[in-house]
Specification:
Layout: E1 30-39, E2 42-52, E3 57-61, H1 68-75, E4 83-88, E5 98-101, H2 105-108, H3 115-125, H4 130-144, H5 159-171, E6 177-181, H6 189-206, E7 209-213, H7 217-223, E8 226-230, E9 237-242, H8 257-276
Parallel strand pairs: 3-7, 3-8, 5-6, 6-7
Antiparallel strand pairs: 1-2, 1-4, 8-9
GO molecular function: ABC-type ferric iron transporter activity; ATP binding; ATP hydrolysis activity
Pfam families: ABC_tran
Protein name: Nitrate ABC transporter ATP-binding protein
Length: 277
């Protein structure tokens, strides 16, 4: 499966339409209403509602097994919902372009293709002519200022470089929304720091609505405009915390009072939810 394609397109279920203006003072980019999902006897989501604002980087954080990855996988159509509706500016998933970056970068890339061809592959699937594919890929790489040898095969690249190629492959279609499922968790610490810097740069360059699942609270706050804190399942929104730290964020950000305060608040909410279980 490519980074931009999904396996399921669940039929929409009739629910009340979303408000023209959400809780953020503007029309939400993604509107979730009445979302329900069960795995065997475990009810992961039950009549769950959420609005995701446009043009922001949202980190999703919560206790282990609370349904963080399940949430973005349902939004991206990778697994079917049991009930509810997910709309993108009033449209269905099949009517928009999106990108998805998987946690396991080693399996996400095609090992027999050079990095350049991996990046342009979604355009090939869209039947874009070869000359245009080449031009668009070169333009993206130049625009982002990426310094990589794209003639290399994935096995010739470091983990961080492979994941950067995965992210560029997701961006090549100019997605309206980008999903990342714990994209740095398989990387060592040095590569993780590098990729956090790269993701910030990509986000600042493109302004693409981005939803990032993270298992690291410091990372979740550091990267986000808002942190979506989930409870244990059946998941509910424990808090949706805004963080206005100036970008690009650096090592100095970690000691700034607003960052420390926001992280402490998120930790308090997280611990409260863990104690409730």
């Amino acid at each position: 499966m490519s980074a931009i394609q999904h396996a399921f397109r669940p039929e929409p279920i009739s629910v009340p339409s979303s408000p023209a203006v959400g809780a953020f003072g503007k029309r939400p980019h993604v509107t979730i209403r009445g979302l329900s999902k069960r795995f065997d006897k475990a009810v992961i989501y039950d009549n769950f509602d959420l609005d995701i604002p446009r043009g922001e980087l949202i980190s999703v954080f919560g206790p282990n097994g609370c349904g963080k990855s399940t949430l973005i996988n349902m939004i991206a159509g990778l697994i079917p919902v049991d009930a509810g509706q997910i709309l993108f500016d009033g449209m269905l998933l099949s009517e928009i372009k999106f990108g998805y970056v998987f946690q396991n970068y080693r399996e996400a890339l095609f090992p027999w293709m050079r990095a350049f061809d991996n990046i342009s592959y979604p355009l090939k699937m869209m039947k874009v002519p070869a000359a245009e594919r080449k031009a668009r890929t070169e333009k993206l790489v130049a625009h982002l200022g990426v310094k990589l040898d794209l003639n290399k095969y994935p096995y010739q690249m470091s983990g961080g470089q492979q994941q950067l190629v995965s992210i560029m492959r997701a961006l090549i279609v100019e997605p309206e929304i980008l999903f990342l499922d714990e994209p740095f968790s398989a990387l060592d610490y040095e590569m993780t720091l590098f990729m956090r810097e790269q993701l910030q740069k990509l986000f600042m360059e493109t302004g693409t609505t981005t939803v990032l699942v993270s298992h690291d609270l410091e990372e979740a706050v550091y990267l986000a405009d808002r942190v979506l804190l989930l409870s244990r399942y059946p998941a509910r929104v424990a808090d949706f915390v805004q963080y206005d730290g100036v970008r690009p964020r650096t090592d100095a950000t970690l000691s700034e009072p607003d960052f420390v305060r926001t992280k402490a608040h998120c930790l308090d909410v997280f611990q409260r939810e863990v104690r409730r279980s």
